[in-house]
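Fill in residues.
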């Protein structure tokens, strides 16, 4: 990361060296900007009707990023890539490459002198996308770190609408007028006309480019390596002809901005003692400033140091070495030095040691907590003002913290231009506020560019590992990965079918490109050319085939630090959730509740339009604008159990959790930090091990959601309402998304107790009753209707005869009862109390919808 930062500055100085001296003399004044080339990769995926087309948009996005990277790192080497995700690619560049916009939104545009670079970027998009889509190009305001990246990411949706279309030729491209009348606009690119003579598909209008490049062209690429992920939707269906579109997303906002590094500490210290020391130190600085104790000229004007300077020493005493201690001063005899042989009047005359000392002093807390920076200032002969530029202003300038401080009562005593504090005018309250911030900045993990980059590289590697080993994570057996093929079959290239079986022929080799359950060796296929399917062109037998292995999944977008979207056979979704959470616990246990993972699953019949599922997938991805609303209260014991169950021996021995697993709640233990630059986020954070088990702490839980698209319109049910803490707006589905740690095990219990087909009719009868009564029920009727519901559970499911189902119901609804021991009356009463809450009924119906309607497992 250091090389990247150095390159950005060097490139800027090569173009304009006017700041060279200021950078050399004051390296802490150097700032950077982040240049974003932003375009909506998720929206591109929604354009495709077939996996081949989706894959083309995914690959062209990757090619675009690489081309822009080559342009900005080598051809016009203004910076290096630091980040890329589904919103674009981002580079670190020098501060003078941009002009701030006037609308006070923390963004900037490339300087007019760099117009050539912007035009080159636009030309790359024009060529690679066939004039279909273009990026928006913005920079952040200048700052000392990478935390401003979040400004670009938060504005991405707005910025997509501000794409640079200067090179776009026309909205609707008219081609081949000699080909007859136009019959419509291409359903993929939505910008080229389709003519009668080139229409290839009865159901879709596809232009020449979208057919040759995005459809046929992708098949040609697949044929080069048929062992990779599939491009055929028929190979993605499960035994019930269902596919699952999956999104996994981290809520990364508070990490990319460095906010949650305020919950990590580098020193395991006593906050109360440190805070008292810091406050006393800042008061000492204030008093010294009032007395002019850091002004060498005042000492020279006196031409001596006498007992009147005992006042300065009194301020320093306990916080720093005093003048008397540092220089062995004997005020009474007017001597100083180890042997007390030098006259005290000579101490201020051309004595560099004295000058350096009164410029910086030797405050104990700074030597303890920021020795490198403090010692560095001393070696350079710098002042306290220079030191505070590093540890205070360097931590806030260009970030949300700057706005926070500017809105505080402290702001009126700060010279923002010169980055200095008017110490003399500070009040007691302002010193306390400043003490809190400075101590926090010294104790927390610093949000350095290198550390922020490690964070997002870690989350990206998490998704990349899942992609690389997707068959293991989803529990897809080897047998399911087989593809049958035949060689030396004398038929033309193209697609063939035999009922549900789909084939692709190429140069005499025929591939079975659909998953068929329960095939037998004597199975014979009659190949009919698609779409005509009139005549049998050839017959092939399974026992004459060869097998090869492929990956039965398809990426919709490549893994990014924030998310990954993909398609797998629906029946393997439960395995996937189990193993992804195991991986999460392994990688992120110490930040559980601070880095929430959201898993969204859309299940549909494989024959349904794929773009409908991808559109639903984008909705179930859940865009959270106010992440604070995801917070829930949990007992500390739950978090302790979660963390301790996943720890390795060396992590226990190193006491890792005391530095990383700090949480806030109602307690007043640990460190009193501003978790966020907001007054209401001044919280006490404490090592989870030192919080009482019953105390409530606040976390953001991992969640999962699902939707079964039995109709295309069902995707409209996916809407998260911010006023309901980003739960579903539709009442029947208002429990979704579910907290994984609290509910996924209950979902699995539901499957276990109802997987027996003999209980299917009973379960259906119960669910039908629940749905029929819920349609018109009012809240005031719940007390009465809950009796009916509890009796229905007991009688329809015959719980008195089926102890396994009864035990499962107890676990699902968290009943504190034992049916055999406590009897039916107690069981019914406890269940009735639970069913008075509609959410418990909705939960049961959601379990039914997931396992029965969507996956057909019960």
């Amino acid at each position: 990361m250091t090389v990247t930062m150095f390159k950005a500055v060097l490139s800027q100085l090569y173009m304009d060296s006017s700041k060279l001296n200021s950078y050399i003399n004051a390296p802490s004044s150097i700032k950077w900007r982040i240049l974003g080339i932003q375009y909506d990769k998720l929206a591109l995926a929604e354009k495709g009707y077939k996996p081949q087309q989706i894959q083309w948009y995914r690959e062209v996005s990757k090619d675009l990023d690489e081309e822009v990277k080559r342009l900005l790192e080598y051809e016009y080497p203004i910076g290096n890539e630091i980040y890329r995700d589904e919103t674009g690619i981002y580079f670190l560049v020098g501060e003078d490459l941009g002009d701030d916009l006037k609308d006070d939104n923390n963004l900037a545009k490339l300087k007019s002198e760099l117009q050539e670079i912007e035009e080159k970027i636009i030309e790359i998009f024009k060529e690679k996308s066939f004039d279909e889509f273009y990026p928006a190009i913005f920079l952040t305001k200048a700052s000392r770190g990478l935390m401003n990246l979040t400004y670009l990411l938060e504005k991405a949706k707005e910025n997509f609408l501000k794409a640079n279309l200067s090179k776009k030729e026309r909205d609707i491209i008219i081609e081949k007028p000699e080909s007859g009348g136009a019959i419509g606009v291409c359903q993929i690119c939505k910008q080229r006309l389709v003519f009668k003579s080139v229409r290839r598909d009865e159901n879709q209008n596809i232009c020449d480019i979208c057919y040759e490049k995005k459809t046929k062209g992708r098949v040609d690429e697949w044929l080069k390596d048929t062992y990779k992920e599939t491009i055929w939707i028929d190979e993605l269906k499960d035994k019930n002809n269902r596919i699952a579109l999956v999104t996994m997303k981290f809520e990364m906002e508070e990490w990319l901005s460095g906010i949650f590094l305020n919950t990590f500490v580098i020193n395991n210290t006593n906050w109360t003692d440190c805070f008292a020391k810091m406050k006393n130190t800042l008061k000492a600085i204030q008093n010294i400033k009032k007395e002019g104790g850091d002004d060498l000229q005042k000492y020279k004007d006196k031409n001596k140091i006498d007992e009147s300077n005992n006042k300065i020493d009194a301020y320093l005493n306990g916080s720093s070495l005093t003048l008397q201690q540092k220089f062995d001063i004997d005020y009474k005899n007017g001597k100083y030095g180890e042997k007390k042989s030098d006259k005290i009047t000579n101490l201020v005359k051309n004595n560099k040691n004295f000058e350096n000392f009164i410029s910086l002093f030797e405050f104990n807390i700074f030597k303890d907590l920021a020795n490198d920076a403090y010692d560095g200032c001393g070696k350079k002969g710098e002042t306290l003002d220079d030191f505070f530029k590093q540890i205070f202003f360097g931590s806030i300038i260009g970030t949300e913290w700057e706005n926070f401080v500017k809105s505080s009562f402290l702001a009126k005593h700060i010279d923002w231009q010169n980055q200095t504090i008017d110490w003399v005018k500070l009040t007691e309250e302002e010193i306390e506020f400043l003490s809190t911030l400075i101590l926090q900045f010294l104790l927390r993990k610093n949000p350095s560019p290198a550390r922020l980059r490690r964070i997002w590289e870690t989350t990206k590697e998490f998704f990349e590992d899942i992609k690389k080993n997707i068959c293991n994570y989803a529990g897809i057996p080897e047998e399911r990965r087989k593809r049958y093929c035949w060689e030396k079959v004398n038929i033309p290239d193209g697609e063939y079918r035999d009922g549900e079986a789909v084939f692709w022929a190429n140069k005499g080799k025929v591939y079975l490109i659909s998953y068929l359950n329960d095939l037998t060796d004597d199975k014979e296929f009659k190949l009919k050319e698609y779409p005509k399917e009139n005549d049998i062109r050839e017959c092939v037998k399974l026992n004459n085939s060869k097998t090869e292995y492929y990956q039965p999944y398809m990426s919709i977008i490549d893994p990014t630090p924030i998310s990954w979207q993909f398609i797998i056979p629906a029946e393997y979704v439960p395995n996937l959730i189990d193993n992804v959470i195991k991986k999460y616990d392994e990688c992120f246990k110490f930040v559980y509740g601070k880095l929430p993972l959201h898993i969204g699953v859309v299940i549909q019949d494989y024959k349904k339009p794929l773009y409908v599922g991808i559109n639903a997938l984008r909705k179930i991805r859940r865009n959270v604008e106010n992440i604070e609303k995801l917070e829930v209260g949990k007992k500390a014991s739950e978090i302790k159990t979660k963390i301790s169950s996943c720890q390795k021996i060396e992590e226990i021995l190193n006491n890792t959790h005391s530095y990383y697993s700090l949480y806030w709640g109602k307690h007043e233990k640990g460190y009193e930090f501003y978790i966020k630059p907001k007054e209401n986020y001044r919280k006490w954070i404490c090592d989870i091990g030192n919080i009482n088990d019953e105390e409530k702490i606040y976390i953001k839980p991992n969640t999962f959601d699902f939707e079964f698209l039995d109709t295309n319109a069902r995707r409209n049910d996916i809407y998260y309402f911010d006023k309901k803490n980003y739960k579903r707006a539709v009442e029947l589905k208002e429990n979704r998304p579910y907290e994984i740690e609290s509910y996924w095990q209950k979902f699995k219990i539901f499957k276990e107790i109802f997987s027996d087909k003999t209980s299917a009719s009973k379960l259906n009868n119960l669910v039908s009753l629940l749905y029929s009564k819920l349609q018109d029920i009012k809240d005031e009727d719940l007390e009465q209707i809950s009796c009916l519901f509890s009796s229905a559970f007991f009688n329809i499911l015959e719980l008195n005869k089926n102890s396994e189902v009864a035990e499962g119901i107890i676990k699902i609804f968290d009943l504190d009862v034992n049916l055999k021991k406590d009897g039916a009356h107690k069981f019914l009463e406890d269940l009735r109390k639970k069913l008075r809450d509609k959410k418990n009924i909705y939960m049961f119906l959601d379990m039914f919808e997931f396992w029965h309607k969507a996956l057909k497992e019960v």
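The CA atoms of residues 182 and 195 lie 4 Å apart.
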